[in-house]
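Justification of computing resources. Each target in the renewal requires a structure prediction run like the one illustrated here; the chain below, 521 residues long, is used simply to show the kind of job we budget for.
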Amino acid sequence: MPREFQSQVSPEVAANESLLKEHVAKLFHVAVSEIQNVMVLKRSIDARQKAVKFNIKATVYFKGDEVVSQKIALPEYKNVTNSQEVIVVGAGPAGLFAALQLIELGLKPIVIERGKDVRGRRRDLKAINVDHLVNEDSNYCFGEGGAGTYSDGKLYTRSKKRGDVDRILKLLVAFGATPDILVEAHPHIGTNKLPQIIQDIREKIIECGGQVLFETRVTDFIIKNNEMQGVITQKGENIAANKVLLATGHSARDIFELLDRKKIFIEAKPFAIGVRAEHPQELIDKIQYSCDFRGEYLPPAPYSIVKQIGGRGMYSFCMCPGGVIAPCATSPGEVVTNGWSPSKRDQATANSGIVIELKLEDFKPYEKFGALAGMEFQKAIEQKAWYLAGQTQKVPAQRMIDFTQNKVSSSIPKTSYAPGTTSVEMGQVFPGFLSQILREGFTEFGKSMRGYLTNESILHAPESRTSSPVRIPRDNETLEHLQIKGLYPCGEGAGYAGGIVSAAIDGEKCALMISESLKNK
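Resulting structure tokens:
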């Protein structure tokens, strides 16, 4: 009879099927020949002691047991060619998973995406990296798959109370992701593998009768008696539907401005802002694994730090082991950073956003903008960074210790940020209170992680798109907008998610509510 167990093993044993069987045989006091299969269910690293271990949860199948197949199949999606139409604005994780859910429920999604398809985006990413040219509709944030496609594909979420995380992960596996994402404590797909998965999702939507419209930006909403009737695109097209799922992401400032201009209720939302710190991956490995050499069986080490500095949280965000820093501006005249890793996390550097919690009162200098005050605060910092960096996509940069000492770095080594760097005293990028918190915070970080505070680490500024600066309020039960019937604000851009998985979950939830609403008519 199969038995489930938990155990702690060395990295070598965790990586080797034969050695793992030997370990399990000793655990159950049986011969290795009696072990038919060991199926790992969950795996995580315990680096608290000098000897790093893996915690595993697994099922062991003995000789004669029927091994349960782990093959994951797609749901039986319906053909919805002639079904009722629902507009989905945005083809990020919220929009794509909402579209799949709508198809399961027998509704036809019309997915409207301002950017290009996942392959076409690559030319525009090259343009920003090499030529410093920003396409406002196609960049690291906009385009098929949203910000996650070309910015890492990390799947870790704390949103387990919000929905079925396993369902989202299993759907990703069914569309081609490695089954390891079902096992790892901090699952990750990788920027090199996500594009094909996203493309396959899109092809499934079309195969089932849904529509996906690229390079189609929504410029207005058609509303009658506070009820959605459809949308208008930049091409002048009217696309009709009385259910509109709005999943435009945290950087769609034109949508926030449209909502505000039409007096559709939105509100300012606190977010976090800071810098992206890059260290040699080898240094982070030494700190985290307490070793001189990581070895072949341990992955590049991540880190996570949280401190309270001056009554505010300062913490690592979107940490990318073996990754690179990317230029994520969505308009000319601004500089924005983010980080990503390939699936193997095999780059020489590690980077992480190091950000500070903001409060609504921080936006007071921009209060004339009302609900868009936080967005204008964010925009002003990004524009200041662009100006300080010579009005290019080069990023203001400073060595970490130099920053804590208010000292301009005499030299900046080449970093993973492709457009290049400009040596700047980065206190100029931020309001004074944020610069002071960052300086104090890095000093405290250095006390918690010995070796972290070093001039080998280069700070890049700003890390400003951590979450939406706006919330689009909706009813807690129906998920409809509080004011406009038939409008379903969704995902990160609406202020209801924070990453690929939580956005996908929210997309599915909104799709379910749309279906329920149509049934109750």
